Amino acid sequence: EVQLVQSGAEVKKPGESLKISCKASGYSFTNYWIGWVRQMPGKGLEWMGIIYPGDSDTRYSPSFQGQVTISADKSISIAYLQWSSLKAADTAMYYCARIVGPTVEYVDYWGQGTLVTVSS
Amino acid sequence: EIVMTQSPATLSVSPGERVTLSCRASQSVSSNLAWYQQKPGQAPRLLIYGASTRATGFPARFSGSGSGTEFTLTISSLQSEDFAVYYCQQYNNWLTFGGGTKVEIK
């Protein structure tokens, strides 16, 4: 059974750093792209970026380039999303997602989401 | 970047009604379009891919159509469990979501 299990909710202060995780199981981690999707409170879905764990090829949406870092450790089948300096505007639910296709297509499995709250 | 526009933003309907949701792309995405359903407090769930192929677990009352820049998601007879937000997403050129359509109880 394919599963993406994300790390738990976080409460941080502005300026702090954070790394959240997405543990994959039930499939070959290195053969599928993993993406991160942001959902701000009461808002829609936004693609942040994707990574191919097989070779660490990473791509970012223009809005998120330079704002976050996506990485993966294929030895333990975990993808990460990290911030070096959080802002209040980073408060959101973050989902990891397995992407179908070598050409990057649609999501067939989602993590349960990680709620990040940034407040002073 | 390809912009996806969904309409209407909110749709108030009664159970049993036929529902049509629209998704428009700012440029052609061929048939590289997916639809997702998201219920409150849950992650999204793949509903349709390739513009018209229904994902596993969704009944035949859900159907997708369209190609190029105009796409439609139809629910032939709305059931109580179908009240949710529906998002389209193109994957022809990078990945972008539409803003979503909330289907609420009238």
Characterization of this structure:
- The complex is a heterodimer of chains A (120) and B (106).
- Chain A is mainly beta and 120 residues long.
- Chain A is 0% helix and 52% strand.
- Chain A is built from no helices and eleven strands.
- Chain A has strands spanning 3-6, 10-12, 18-25, 33-39, 45-52, 57-60, 69-73, 78-83, 92-99, 107-110, 114-118.
- In chain A, the strands form two sheets. In chain A, strands 2, 4, 5, 6, 9, 10 and 11 form a seven-stranded mixed sheet that branches. In chain A, strands 1-3-8-7 form a four-stranded antiparallel sheet, with no helix packed on it.
- The radius of gyration of chain A is 14 Å and the shape is globular.
- The mean pLDDT of chain A is 97.
- With 106 residues, chain B is mainly β.
- Helix content of chain B is 0%, strand content 51%.
- Chain B contains no helices and eleven strands.
- Chain B has strands at 4-7, 10-13, 19-25, 33-38, 45-49, 53-54, 62-67, 70-75, 84-90, 96-97, 101-105.
- In chain B, strands 2, 4, 5, 6, 9, 10 and 11 form a seven-stranded mixed sheet that branches. Chain B has a four-stranded antiparallel sheet with strand order 1-3-8-7, with no helix packed on it.
- Chain B is globular.
- Chain A binds chain B through residues 35, 44-47, 50, 59, 61-62, 95, 100-101, 103-108, 110-113, and chain B through 1, 32, 34, 36, 38, 43-46, 49, 55, 87, 89, 91, 94-100.
Report the total helices of chain B: 0
Number of strands of chain A: 11
Q: Report strand % of chain B.
A: over 45%
Oligomer: heterodimer
What are the low-pLDDT stretches of chain A, counting only 5+ consecutive residues below 50?
Answer: none
Helices and strands of chain A: which structural class? mainly beta
Q: What is the makeup of the main sheet of chain B? A: 7 strands, mixed
End-to-end Cα distance of chain A: 40 Å
CA distance, first residue to last residue of chain B: 35 Å
Strand tally of chain B is: 11
Instruction: Output the helix-strand order of chain B.
Output: EEEEEEEEEEE
